[in-house]
Each structure stands twice: as C-alpha cells, then as structure tokens.
Write a structure and sequence with these properties.
By secondary structure, the chain is mostly helical. The chain is built from 19 helices and five strands.
C-alpha cells in the first residue's frame, strides 16, 4: 500500500528525487508541499526523506541569489518544524523503522544545508542564529541519533568558517581543526577545503602548518606565505599574495590574509632584529633585562618597507614613517600580547621580559587569546 501523509505519498517523493529535473521552481514548490505535510504528520519515512530532498533543492539553487533566498526560506521553515517537535525521546529514534523517529533527528542535516546557502548568499550572520537555536533547543551534538559523523564534520566546518569571517581566529581554528581531523580520508576534496580555512585561521595567531602537510594536501601555494611570516618578510608575503590573488579570492580569504597577518610579521621582524642586536652588542651580555633600541627596529622597518629586489630603500615611504610610528607599533605588539615588555620612552628602548631566557619576552603567538564577551563555545555551539 502506498504510504501517504496529508495527500503526499512516499512514491511521489521518491519519483521527484529520482527525476533529473532542471526546474528549480518545480522542486521548490514540491518541497513546500513536503514542509506542509512534515508540519502535520509524524511519519518516520517523511522525516527521513526531508534531507535528501532538501539537498536536491539546495544544489539547484546555486545559480541565482533569488533561488538561494527561496531555498533558505523553505529550509528555515523545515528547521522551525524540527525544533518544535517534542518526541520521541532520543533512545527511541530508529531511522530504519516506520515510526518512532523524532523530527529532531534531522536538525543538524537541515542546519548544515542552511549554512551552505547562507554562505553562498553572503548572509553568514544567520549561521550564529541557527547554531544558537540548536543549543537552546538542547539537541545533542555527540549523539549519533541526532548527528552522523558527516553531519558533525560539516557543522563544525561551517561554524569555523563563521568565526573566521568574524576574525575570531582562535575559535575558528578550534572548529576547523575538528572538521579536518574528523573528515574521512576518503573525502579528499572536502578534507583539503577544510585545511585551506584551517591554515588561514591559524596564520594570524601563529599556528603555522608544516611544509610536509601543505605538500601532501597539494596546498604548496601557502608555503611562501608561511616562510615570509617566519622571517618577517613583508615584501615577499604581499608579492606572493598579490600574485595568487585569484586563487585566494576564490576561497574568500584574500582580504583576511592581506589585512590580518601583518601584526604577526611585525613580531617576527622585531624578534629577528632583537636577536641580531643582542648577538652584536656587548652590553646585552650584562645581568640587566634584555632590550632593543627602537632605532634599530626603525631601520629594519625601513628596509622591509623598501624594495626588497634591491638594496635601495624607498625613502618616500620612510619619510612618511617616523620614530613615533615605530614606537606606537611596538606598543600595539605589547598590547596584543605578542611581546612582553615595556617602552622606556626617554631612552627610546624596548625593555623585554628577562625571566624567560628562551623567548626573551616574545610570547608564542598561538598562546595569545584576547577574551571577548560570551566567549564560550560549549554554551553557544554545543561543542
């Protein structure tokens, strides 16, 4: 006997899924009818058919922003129906049965499809709203009855990308690390894409990938950037970034790499300048705290602000950058926690923390964490 729910038959849903339709409106209208039946019925087969039909609709919505908005509206309605469901309890979720499957069992599947559409439509702020709704509804993340491994990987991937878009690099890195680590080795393309964003989230906070990993995952395009960060070579960093702009823009990370990594390179340059000055200065062998004349860092800055293809320095650039700018830059590094020390303004010295004889006050960038309000992933995202 054909199973029906409020006029919608299981056979009709299967037929629509198998039909190689290119008409988005036809699929969207059919999905709208499914939503209507889904809101009224309790049949397990319909709950299980919602995600595959939603995936088909989302794939077909990629062409235009109007279609993406329509798909998002329909998926959001599904998501609301899912959250409103109150039964059965988790222990009774049996996806292979015709009854007893709670609608919340597909919460993460629908949420991930919503996330995909929101990123396509550049409406990423809605990712935060959906994630908070899931947590507020108490839908567990680690229970396989509610989220398969693929669902969990996709969910953390999108949450990581959301935080990357908000420039919260440490939080983004935690979620993207989970996605990369738990993505099956058989899903090579997805794992590589996760690594792209994981690398981008790590660079501004000093979490640098190994050359071996980048080569293994065919991401050698990052190697010149990593080398430039380590050495503080601004010219090489930005030359490579501009030369590969099209590739980085395709992943929508170009501006992040352009605007948010300079501070870390300034730290690298300051550290290299200090080490060179220490090795060449007899006075640094005394028992006092380590220090660096700001004038030495000013010269180093003038060199990297010039043309690295020759020894000549761009004096017009140097004229626009004076010692006050250099002092303020060092203050910014101290305020950001990248350097431990203080400025002795009268003598124009950076006095470093001498307690750590290994780092000389240069904090490990990945250990720096600037607290923000409500910075609690376990409360906000259930992970």
């Amino acid at each position: 006997m054909t199973q029906k729910t409020s006029g919608l038959s299981k056979h009709a849903v299967h037929r629509m899924l198998e039909q190689p339709s290119s008409d988005f409106e036809q699929v969207a209208n059919f999905y709208h009818d499914m939503n209507t039946s889904f809101a009224r019925g309790k049949e397990a087969w319909l709950t299980l058919m919602m995600p595959p039909m939603a995936r088909k609709m989302v794939r077909m919505s990629a062409a235009t922003l109007t279609q993406q908005k329509r798909a998002a509206d329909l998926l959001r309605r599904t998501f609301q129906i899912v959250l409103a469901d109150r039964g059965p309890p988790p222990g009774q979720n049996r996806p292979d049965a015709d009854s007893g499957v709670g609608k919340r069992a597909i919460a993460y599947s629908i949420a991930n499809l919503l996330f995909r559409v929101y990123f396509w439509a550049h409406n990423v702020i809605m990712v935060d709203t959906i994630a908070r709704n899931i947590v507020s509804a108490g839908i567990p993340f680690d229970n396989p009855a509610f989220a398969s491994r693929a669902d969990r990987v996709a969910y953390r991937y999108y949450i990581g990308r959301y935080w990357l878009s908000q420039q919260a690099f440490a939080r983004a890195h935690r979620h993207l690390q989970y996605a990369y680590d738990n993505c099956s080795a058989n899903c090579k393309r997805q794992k590589r894409v996760a690594l792209v964003y994981l690398v981008v989230a790590g660079l501004p906070i000093g979490l640098l990938p190994t050359p071996e990993l980048l080569t293994l995952m065919d991401l050698d395009i990052f190697l010149p950037l990593v080398r430039a960060i380590v050495t503080g070579d601004f010219s090489e960093y930005h030359r490579h970034l501009e030369g590969s702009r099209a590739w980085f823009r395709r992943y929508e990370v170009y501006l992040t790499l352009k605007m948010r990594v300079d501070l870390l390179m300034y730290r690298s340059l300051l550290r290299r300048t200090f080490l060179l000055h220490r090795d060449s200065s007899v006075s640094q062998q005394s028992k006092g705290p380590p220090y660096l004349p700001l004038a030495a860092f000013h010269v180093a800055l003038a060199m990297v602000r010039g043309d690295s293809d020759s020894v000549a320095v761009d004096h017009s650039a140097c004229d626009a950058w004076d010692m006050t700018d250099t002092e303020m830059l060092v203050v910014s590094l101290i305020d950001a926690g990248l350097v431990r020390g203080y400025i002795q303004h009268e003598r124009m010295l950076l006095v470093l923390d001498g307690r750590d004889k290994q780092r000389f006050g240069f904090s490990q960038p990945s250990g720096i964490r600037i607290a923000v309000a409500d910075d609690n992933d376990s409360e906000q995202f259930g992970s």
